[in-house]
Write a structure and sequence with these properties.
single chain; 386 residues; mainly alpha; Cytochrome Bc1 Complex, Chain D, domain 2; 16 helices
Length: 386
């Protein structure tokens, strides 16, 4: 009897928590477009959620708990939230990600605000879905360090709170890696940020931007050529074309040109094996999208990130090599870094110092509302212990 009451108490507590988080986030469905922040696509919940993984309040809550839980990592020190911190616009302040045993990766941790709109995940687009992206860091030795997904599942199955949560969320006594990915991605899809000063200005509030921001917007749309990649579409103001481009950042690595030349001189038959070989060499990660697509014109190309909240997420670029937005603007004003595969949109801009300052000021006007996400009690206890 006591065991039954305890189990019932766990169920009630989980459902109550789920309802609370659901109410504090955005509702889902055709009638809920008004819950999407100003400036974001009104059809978000209709067209950016996969049919095979519909949003539910319970799933979002389970995903929140998993997102903050360091027990998913091999040594219990790293959670998704370690690199994607709510207080830093769901990014961190390190040049590259730092995982278990303080191991350093090769890529900067991107913000996952508005990640629902990405058509590919990671800097090189190696995952097509958010569901897949959510579970790959678990088995990356430089991130969460688990040997296999089975190791993660075994730990979750040994925790009564998760056994109950998965049962209540999915309606069956099953915990597997697909359901883990479904839950985490459902939570991540609620991390929407809009209603920036620019959004308010475009909605009719003509005092939402100051003079410097207005001048910066003119540079952004005009001489700065920023909208060639960071698009401003009236109905989808996402500030990214979601393409992969070589802007020359990778070319600054001392090994890049040597690696790139090997690929350009290889035959089509030789490419797959050569890509695999070069990927593990120093500087191999700088080959970017090419490591996934095996297309020679993807050498050194990386995902075009959204610029929403960009002022909150230094350092910048896929390798975290730019400390400030002023550094980023200076890099592009100089035309990027010339290399064998530089994007044709890149060339010196000739912006004045004032234009560069105004452009940086305008980028600050893309800072929007921040989701208020509470850490689960279990994560807070774990943090105090560490």
């Amino acid at each position: 009897m006591q065991r039954t009451l305890l189990r019932l108490g766990l169920v009630i507590a989980f459902l109550a928590s789920a309802i609370s988080v659901f109410q504090s986030n955005f509702a889902f469905g055709e009638a809920q477009s008004h819950n999407v922040p100003l400036g974001l696509p009104a059809d978000t919940w209709l067209h950016f959620v996969p049919r095979q993984n519909p949003q539910t309040a319970a799933k979002v809550e389970l995903g929140r708990k998993l997102f903050f839980d360091k027990r998913l990592s091999a040594d219990g020190t790293v959670a998704c939230a370690t690199c994607h911190q709510p207080e830093r616009a769901f990014a961190d302040d390190k040049p590259v990600a730092e995982g278990v045993l303080k191991r350093r990766g090769t890529r900067n941790s991107p913000s996952i605000l508005n990640v629902i709109y990405n058509n590919g995940q990671f800097w090189d687009g190696r995952s097509d879905t958010l569901e897949e992206q959510a579970v790959l860091p678990l088995i990356n030795p430089l991130e969460m360090g688990d040997q296999t997904h089975d190791d993660v599942i075994a730990r979750l199955r040994a925790l009564p709170e998760y056994v109950t949560a998965f049962q209540q969320t999915f309606g069956k006594p099953t915990i597997n890696i697909m359901l883990v990915g479904n839950a985490i991605s459902a939570f991540e899809r609620t991390l929407l940020s809009g209603a920036a000063p620019l959004d308010r200005y475009l909605a009719g509030n003509k005092v939402a931007l100051n003079d410097a921001e207005l001048r910066g917007m003119a540079v952004f749309r005009g001489r700065g050529r920023c909208t060639r990649c960071h698009t401003m579409n009236e109905h989808r103001m996402l500030f990214s074309d979601y393409e992969y481009r070589n802007t020359g950042v990778a070319a600054r690595h001392p090994e890049f040109e040597k690696l790139a030349r090997q690929l350009f001189h290889a035959s089509d038959d030789e490419l797959p094996q050569l890509v695999k070989q070069l990927a593990s060499q120093p500087g191999g990660s700088e080959l970017g999208r090419m490591l996934v697509s095996h297309h020679i014109l993807d050498v050194g190309s990386f995902h075009t990130p959204s610029l929403r909240n960009v002022a909150l997420t230094p350092p910048y670029f896929h390798d975290g090599s730019a400390a400030t937005l002023a550094d980023v603007v200076k890099f592009y004003n100089e035309g990027g870094k010339d290399n064998l595969n530089l994007d044709t949109e890149l060339h010196p801009l000739g912006l004045t110092e004032e234009e560069q300052r105004d452009l940086v000021t305008f980028l600050g006007a893309l800072t929007g509302s921040q989701p208020q996400v509470a850490q689960p009690l279990s994560a807070m206890r774990n943090r105090r212990m560490n």
